[in-house]
Design brief:
Blueprint lengths: L3 E6 L3 H16 L3 E3 L7 E6 L4 H19 L5 E6 H6 L1 H6 L5 E3 L7 H9 L5 E2 L20 E5 L1 E2 L10 H5 L3 E2 L2 H13 L4 E5 L17 H9 L6 E4 L9 H9 L3 E6 L7 H7 L5 H14 L4 E8 L6 H14 L3 E6 L17 H24 L5 E10 L4 E5 L12 E4 L12 E10 L2 E6 L6
Parallel strand pairs: 1-2, 1-3, 3-4, 4-5, 5-6, 7-10, 10-11, 11-12, 12-13, 13-14, 17-19
Antiparallel strand pairs: 8-9, 15-16, 15-18, 16-17, 18-19
Helix pairs in contact: 12-13
């Protein structure tokens, strides 16, 4: 009987793609892959190590699996991902319950590492980050009708608060041919939506194609794939938001008019300390330009409150900026003081309760805007990608083009009229919106068939 392995994937979609490649490699090597890691012989925890809350989540997951191992439900725990890469041998020292620790460069050796962990060898492997596989087979952790497509790895931006360049290394683009080949395979396997991801998607190709920004050309190639309906982009930095990219978004029907644009702040002094581009005036001008070039665009951003030196005036300006810009989607995070980053050593660190309260005030305002915007959609008919049946709400659910996966933008919950044909998961249907509840849209399936 084959030995079994299960994966607990934490953190971002970029980390998830790495986990999917590891699972495919293990399955190819003869392992039985379990959906529930607690039921496997070996549990892999693919950790996040970006900010303190993510690190704690990873540690809590390891400790829970350690409890199950002590009770005899597991034989070994293998720690991979960003936390493992960042803290290396400290993981085994601080968490002796682990049986193996490996950095991102060792993902290709996961079969050997898992077998060594089962044999009691307690391996630790930290080869060069550049050895992380950027391509190869994947065992998808998403439903077949959508998939993440990683177009680059690493980051060169060196924002002062961010540990990602230390963890993930330099920016490394994949070739367009390689990306297109993977995209075609994903679509052949049923993907209707592909979500392009990287630490900075807008910088794609800069390192590979003679310092040229090649995301527009990549998008045009992907648009030619038959059967692909939606192409979504996440993590688009404002520095490289070119007119060529906006023109592609405006002219190509498959490229969703959805931009995830992490701004982090609007104060020029704070942005400079963050090593980020822009000022309130420049960002306001950029957003107006985007909306002019791409009518109807959905704009999502992320912000940080409580960065070292953020004054009450800076925070007030941020609140005013957010209110003025009327972002369609937003995430806001309290600054996390991460060792090894430049910002961690800066003077004028902000008290934790002040950082949290500022974050809460920003998000409370955004939740009100989301609710108001949702209520204004009552009576509209929206194209929705049906994702399944919610047995608790006793209705179907899905997403519009303005909603990214994984609950970051909410969902559409809809009922089916008596006698109407039930929708099929992974197909596009028409839903008439009737109301908005806590930011989620509520509606009813229209009688005509979906696409």
């Amino acid at each position: 009987m084959a030995e079994s392995v299960g994966l607990v994937n934490l953190g971002c979609a970029k980390n998830q793609v790495d986990g999917e490649r590891m699972l495919a490699s293990l399955e190819s090597a003869g392992w039985e892959v379990k959906d529930d890691a607690a039921l496997a012989d070996v549990a892999i925890v693919n950790t996040c190590g970006f900010i303190q809350s993510a690190k704690q989540e990873s540690i809590d997951e390891i400790l829970e699996l350690a409890r199950l191992k002590k009770e005899g439900h597991l034989k070994a725990i293998v720690v991979t991902g960003c936390l493992a890469e960042r803290y290396r041998s400290e993981i085994m020292q601080q968490l002796p319950e682990c049986d193996a620790v490996c950095g991102i460069g060792a993902d290709a050796d996961i079969n050997y590492i898992c077998r060594a962990a089962l044999a009691g060898a307690r391996p630790e492997a930290f080869p060069e980050k550049e050895k992380l596989p950027l391509c190869g087979e994947r065992k998808l952790l998403t439903p077949s009708f959508f998939a993440y497509l990683k177009i680059a790895e690493g980051c060169d931006n060196r924002c002062s608060y961010c540990a990602i360049p230390m963890i993930r290394g330099r920016y490394r683009s994949r070739t367009m041919e390689d990306i297109e080949a993977e995209a075609r395979k994903l679509v052949q396997n049923g993907a209707k939506e592909l979500i392009l991801i990287a630490q900075d998607t807008t910088k794609y190709g800069w390192d590979l194609y003679d310092h040229k920004l090649m995301l527009p050309q990549l998008l045009r190639r992907l648009c030619k794939i038959d059967g692909l309906v939606w192409i979504r982009m996440l993590y688009c930095y404002p520095d490289y938001m070119t007119d060529e990219l906006l023109d592609v978004m405006a002219s190509e029907p498959k490229v969703l008019k959805y931009i995830d644009l992490p701004l982090q702040h609007c104060s020029q002094s704070i942005l400079k300390a963050m090593r980020r581009w822009g000022s309130r005036e420049e960002l306001t001008k950029l957003i107006a330009h985007i909306r002019e070039k791409v009518p109807g665009v959905t704009l999502r951003t992320t912000l940080i409150t409580g960065f070292p030196g953020e004054t009450e005036a800076d925070f007030t300006a941020l609140c005013e900026f957010v209110k003025e810009m009327k972002f369609d989607r937003m995430g806001c995070f309290a600054y996390s003081q991460e060792e090894g980053t430049a910002a961690a050593e800066m003077p004028n660190q902000i008290d934790e309760d002040v950082k949290q309260r500022r974050m809460e005030l920003i998000m409370e305002g955004q939740m009100d805007r989301d609710q108001t915007a949702g209520e204004a959609m009552a009576g509209q008919v929206q194209t929705v990608l049906c994702e399944g049946w919610d047995r608790y709400a006793e209705c179907w659910f899905g997403r519009t083009a303005a909603q990214a996966p994984d609950d970051i933008d909410g969902k559409v919950y809809f009922t089916v009229p008596t006698g109407a044909q039930k929708p099929v998961m992974g197909t596009f249907v028409q839903v008439k919106i009737t109301e908005c509840m806590d930011g989620d849209l509520i509606g009813e399936l229209c009688p005509q068939k979906g696409a």
